[in-house]
Every structure is written in structure tokens, then in C-alpha cells.
Design brief:
2 copies of one chain form a homodimer. By secondary structure, chain A is an alpha+beta fold. Chain A is built from 6 helices and 6 strands. Chain A has helices spanning 6-13, 20-31, 39-49, 55-67, 111-121, 137-144, and strands at 71-75, 81-85, 91-96, 102-105, 124-125, 129-135. In chain A, helix 2 (20-31) crosses helix 3. Chains A and B meet through helix 5, strand 5 and strand 6 of A and helix 5, strand 5 and strand 6 of B. The structure holds a DNA duplex (30 and 30 nucleotides).
Amino acid sequence: MHDHHPFIETLRQREYRITPQREMIIEAVTTSGSEHVTAEEIFEQVHDKSSALNIATVYRTLEILVEEGLISRADLGGGQMVYATSHHGPHIHLVCRYCWQVIDADYDLIAPFGDALRAQYGFSADLQHLAVFGVCATCMAALEE
Amino acid sequence: MHDHHPFIETLRQREYRITPQREMIIEAVTTSGSEHVTAEEIFEQVHDKSSALNIATVYRTLEILVEEGLISRADLGGGQMVYATSHHGPHIHLVCRYCWQVIDADYDLIAPFGDALRAQYGFSADLQHLAVFGVCATCMAALEE
DNA sequence: TCGCTTATTGCGAGTAATTGCAAATACAAG
DNA sequence: CTTGTATTTGCAATTACTCGCAATAAGCGA
């Protein structure tokens, strides 16, 4: 019983059933070269190898992985959610709503805010993969000209 | 040529054309009793009085109002975006991803984060109507039991 | 190994929001 | 008031995602 991937082992321990679909999706999401993947990209990557997969299953599996804290999801505004494995470490995305450029910002900037929410409201905010919308320096300069 | 609503006047000054549809949508979004409205609610409210309106026009008009800074939009996670007029004042929504309860939090908590982003990255973040996802105190207690 | 139970999948329908394009119309100029 | 034209609208198609339900199959015990 050798499972090849720690995510599989974690899911098994938490009493999820290990299906070929889930194995393929986990394989795809964790071996992706880029930092962020969309559900559609995962679907295509897996579908190339095996046609036994439905897009709804991709969404449902990613949902489980997010709930179990193995991956994180962010809305970068391009009309699709993006997913990242948690071992990339917490980070913030600053998304410009004019040029759609994404700037990666230091997580430490938002950490005090998370602490304050926990202290004041008992609320544990998901800030490890936060997307913040706004206007970047370049576009701001262009607007003010 | 008396326009009744400051938003109309602002749009006219910025060289948008004033159509009956835009007037009705602005009327609906600003006279709504509740703090947040959805595009669908606005559409229904206006459609009751005049059938000359399409849902796509509602979305396009709201988009303009957001871009012009007259209203703000937030994704509270229920599958629908909610809109609020800016004069309600800045506020944060803490959305629990288990029970979907929404807690209104003090804007002052997030203000230092916005300042830091501006200082360090020249990025002007839209934080005046931010939705933050996480787990509320009640659900957290239930999970840890 | 063979069933049994229950989680999971695939499929199709449904939802909120966006977009391309032709028809309609706001508004300025004559 | 009429005309010209660029903007805006309505419509239909499309996208990203979700959901209900019947069929399938994972994992357990015998």
C-alpha cells in the first residue's frame, strides 16, 4: 500500500475515499510548474492522459483540498479562481483593476490585521493567499496626469 | 434641466450619456433600504415600474458606478456580488465559510495595512468594502470540540 | 474473494455574470 | 426641429461554477 503522495495519505487518514480521479487531480495540482492553476487547466492536463474525468469532479476535489488546508484558492479577478499548493508559503496578491498586473506582496504586512481580527472578533481569517484589488503605482500616475 | 440626483450630475460631467435606464438604476441603488443590494434586486425593482430594462444593462451600469467610485462592490460568497453606496462609509465584512454568517468589522483595523501597501508598493488598495473569508468564533469552537 | 454499504462520479440542468453585435437613442451641431 | 454619429441598449450566446440525482465503485467485513 504505497501511495506516492502525502496529500493522498492525509485524505485517507481523514476518511476520504481514494479514487483514481482524486489521485490524478492531486498529481496535476502539485506538479504544475506555475504557481497558480485554474480548475480548467487541471481538467485539461488530466484529460489528455485519461478521459475518465468530469470537470465537476475537478471542482469538487479542489474544494475538498481547500477545506482540508492542503491548497489555497484566490480570486485574481480574471473570471477564474486560481489554486496554489500551500507549501508555496503565504503571500498576498495586489491586483490592479486597470492593467490586471499582479504584484506579490509580503505576507507580514497583513499578519497584524489577522491577529487583530482574532483578538477582537474571534475570527480566524484566511489570509494566506489573499487577493487585494486596487490601483498600481503606474496606473495611478497615468490617472493623475 | 434639473437632474434630481448628484450621481447623474457626476456622470454627465464625466461625459457619460444619461439614459432612462441609468437614471432608474441609480434611483434604485441609492434609495434601497438595505445596506447591500444585488444586481438582480435592482433589476426586479426597476422592472416592476418599467419593463424597458435588461439585466445586462444593470451589470454594465453598476460596473461604471464602481469604476467612478460612486458605489462599491463586494463578493460575500453567496454566488452573487453585492453593491453598496459609498456614503454608508467604509467597513469590512468577515464572512464565515462554514455558516456564511457575515460580521461587520471596524474599518480602522485594516487601515494600517492600506497605508503600508501605499508606502511600500505605491499600491492604492480598495479596502473600503472588503470581504474577508475565514472561520467565525462559533464554528471554530464547534470544529475544535 | 465476494457482497454490502455509502461515498463519489458523471451527467445534465441551472445560476450569476460577461460579451459580441446589430438596432436604438442621447446629444451636439446645423 | 432635424440630422449625424458615437454611445448605449437588448438580445442571445458563452463562461465559470454549482447542484440534484442515478449509476458507479471504494473500502470494509465475512
